[in-house]
Amino acid sequence: MFVVGQEQQKVFAHRCVLACRCQAFRGMLSQAPVGSQDSSSSAPPQEPFILGNVQPEVFLAVIEFLYTNSVTLNSHIALEVLTSSVEYGLQDLCKV
User: Fold this and answer.
1) How far apart (Å, rounded) are the C-alpha atoms in residues 65 and 82?
2) Domain annotation covers residue 6
3) Which of 6, 27, 39, 66 has the highest CB neighbour count under 10 A?
4) CA atoms within 13 A on the CB side of 12
């Protein structure tokens, strides 16, 4: 789970999708403890990743791209999405 922006909006995404599609997320997620693989254990819930400097709408656009390889942008967030795509090393998103 990610907590995004000053609004502290919760955003859920699959770790495997993020790690497969983005080297930056792979590094971020590999540093976080995964917990036990045994479903019968009562492993503590994972701590959320706090991304306070990203607007939720921008982060959701990045997540949409990682899941679908396409993204719907408006002029309000286009520059911020470009900035995030450079920060996360998403060259294909930079081309959009």
Assistant:
1) 12
2) yes
3) 66
4) 1
Is position 42 within any domain? no
Number of neighbouring beta carbons within 10 Å of residue 63: 22
Residue pair 77/58 in contact by the 8 Å Cβ criterion: yes
Single pTM value for the model: 0.81
Answer yes or no: is 21 within a domain: yes
38 part of a folded domain: no
Q: What pLDDT does 23 receive?
A: 94
Tell the burial category of 93 from Cβ atoms under 10 Å away from its Cβ (0-12, 13-18, 19+): buried
DSSP-derived 3-state class of residue 2: strand
pLDDT tens-digit series, residues 30-48: 876 655 444 445 555 678 8
Give the separation between CA 72 and CA 86, rounded to whole angstroms.
Answer: 18
Residue 86 sits in which domain range? 2-32+48-95
Read off the CATH number of the domain in which 80 is found.
Answer: 3.30.710.10
* Domains held by the chain: number: 1
